[in-house]
Amino acid sequence: MTTAYDVPADVLIGKLSAYVKENIKEVTPPEWAPFVKTGTHVERVPQVPDWWYVRTASILRKLYMNADPIGVQRLRKEYGGRKRKGDSPAHHGKAGGSIIRLSLQQLEEAGLVDKADKSGRVLSKKGKSLLDAMSTQIKKDLEKEKPELKAY
């Protein structure tokens, strides 16, 4: 069976974000989404209009890749980046916690994510099956484009 480990991340996140936008009504960007930066390390708002769905799909993939529960703080660190400080050396800046927290809450409302006590959130069976089905479809599409991939 094909898993999310077997397909390229960018293809999976792209298809998954389109699926989430069309089929999962619980995941909707808040009214402040077009005006907010994604973290302290970023200078501008996102240029992609559907960035909320891309971030949500990316969070789903991260939850799939890590079997352990993941909390908001760890995801803030993962989505953070280099924060420029003028003449001083650059340091790491965390991503915005409200974006990640609200995305996780929406995914939990949709039944794709479960809360794991106080240690964070994990992917539910429904979420895991969605990612596996999406990965299988992506692998079939890639094999049609490049038949040499059937060996893998």
The N- to C-terminal Cα distance equals 11 Å
Secondary-structure element order, as H and E? HHHEEHEEH
Number of strands: 4
Query: Are there runs of 5+ residues with pLDDT below 50, and where?
Result: none
Strand order of the largest sheet: 1-2
Mean pLDDT: 92
Query: Helical proportion?
Result: 40-55%
Backbone shape: globular
The main pleated sheet reads as:
2 strands, antiparallel
Written description of the protein model:
- This protein is α+β, with helices and mostly antiparallel strands and 152 residues long.
- It has helices spanning 9-23, 51-65, 72-79, 97-110, 125-145; strands at 81-85, 88-93, 113-116, 120-123.
- It has a two-stranded antiparallel ribbon with strand order 1-2.
- α1 (9-23) crosses α2 and α2 (51-65) crosses α4.
- The model has no long low-confidence stretch (mean pLDDT 92).
Q: What would a concise description of this structure say?
A:
With 152 residues, the protein is α+β, with helices and mostly antiparallel strands.
Question: Which secondary structure elements does this structure contain, and how are they paired or packed?
Answer:
Elements: H1 9-23, H2 51-65, H3 72-79, E1 81-85, E2 88-93, H4 97-110, E3 113-116, E4 120-123, H5 125-145
Helix pairs in contact: 1-2, 1-5, 2-4
Structure characteristics:
12% strand, alpha+beta, two-stranded antiparallel sheet, 152 residues, 4 strands, 5 helices, two-stranded antiparallel ribbon
